[in-house]
Amino acid sequence: MVEIKSVGVVGGGQMGSGIAQLAAVNGLDVWLHDSDSAALNKALKSISNNIQRLISKGKLNKEKGDDSLRRLRCASSLEDFHSVDIVIEAIVESEDVKKKLFAHLDKTVKGSAILASNTSSISITRLASATIRSSQVIGMHFMNPPPIMKLVEIVRGADTSDDTFNTTKCLAERFGKTIICSQDFSGFIVNRILMPMINEAFHALYTGVATMEDIDTGMKLGTNHPMGPLELADFIGLDVCLSIMKVLHAGLGDSKYAPCPLLVQYVDAGRLGRKRGIGVYNYS
Ligand code: NAD
Questions:
Q1: Average of pLDDT values for 33-41?
Q2: Which sites bind NAD(+) (predicted)?
Q3: How many CB atoms neighbour CB 186 within 10 A?
Q4: How does pLDDT run across 239-250, given as a tens digit for each residue?
Q5: What is the mean pLDDT of residues 147-152?
Q6: What is the pLDDT of residue 97?
Q7: Which residue, of 84, 136, 189, 238, is most buried by count of CB atoms within 10 Å of its CB?
Q8: Does 153 qualify as catalytic in the annotation?
Q9: All structural domains of the chain with their residue ranges
Q10: What is the CATH number of domain 192-276?
Q11: What is the pTM of this model?
């Protein structure tokens, strides 16, 4: 088992920036890449603000915080990842785009490096098939926001080796996370259960069962969830929710997973949730 000392994170959106922060605070050298330079700058700013906030609240010692920021570097291209021990991919939830990235990474990173995906739902076995290192490909599914949420869902593809699994598990534990292991089926454990609930909340709104506020209040106070399903969908990103429902629908072959037309319409309208200032709710 290799000791992980450096990580390349691809995708600097809500998940990638959180994963990069977590890795830097836990002593790893981090390279962060995003194909959109504005997203990359935004990620670096948000990580720096979060670390300063942790320092000012006394939750992180200043020396450790400053050291974390020094170890976090921007990668202008994937070629900067040539010496990292593991890559954690957190780009758009699209099998085609992720496969292209994995094929590229396979040619770019050193032979011993692990390629991990933060995918919410896509088959790890199929992502691994884009590489010639399928034994070193694994699902490492963080929850949102990664620095705070305690869980990492680990998903082994058909060829993932014990060594890759053990190294990834150790890394997640070093980040202070509790691990669950899922077989490689669409949506794994968490989203197999969560997304149909969110989709059903959209159906309830779509068919006029109740207002969005009452649906959310019902689930918060009625089932003790910290956020209502529609509020949570806005937090996750409606585009991400829709992509996951499509993967569940295609992968599990049951019409019960068909995305609600209202969810589709909101995404078509660019109402992607908090990150766009409007989703089910308006945040402006
Ligand atoms: P996001 O839209 O916030 O960020 C995605 C980032 O990836 C963007 O900055 C985009 O510019 C970048 N990107 C897209 N294609 C790229 C490419 N080819 N190369 C480099 N960068 C690229 O999305 P997110 O919410 O951070 O989700 C990212 C991944 O994490 C998805 O696979 C998603 O399913 C998964 N995930 C999301 C959540 C959530 O709550 N949002 C939770 C767990 C896992």
A1: 97
A2: 11-16, 34, 93, 98, 120, 144, 275
A3: 21
A4: 999 999 999 999
A5: 97
A6: 98
A7: 238
A8: yes
A9: 6-182, 192-276
A10: 1.10.1040.10
A11: 0.96
Instruction: Give the fold, CATH level 3, of 6-182.
Output: Rossmann fold (3.40.50)
The closest alpha carbon to 12, from 76, 68, 57, 63, belongs to 76
Ligand 1 mean position to 57 CA, how many Å? 29
Instruction: Report the complex ipTM.
Output: 0.99
Stated length of the chain: 284
Q: How far apart are CA 214 and CA 159, in angstroms?
A: 46
Nearest partner of 266 among 201, 220, 213, 218, judged by Cα? 201
**CA-closest residue to ligand 1 atom 41:** 236
Nearest-atom index, ligand 1, CA of 15: 26
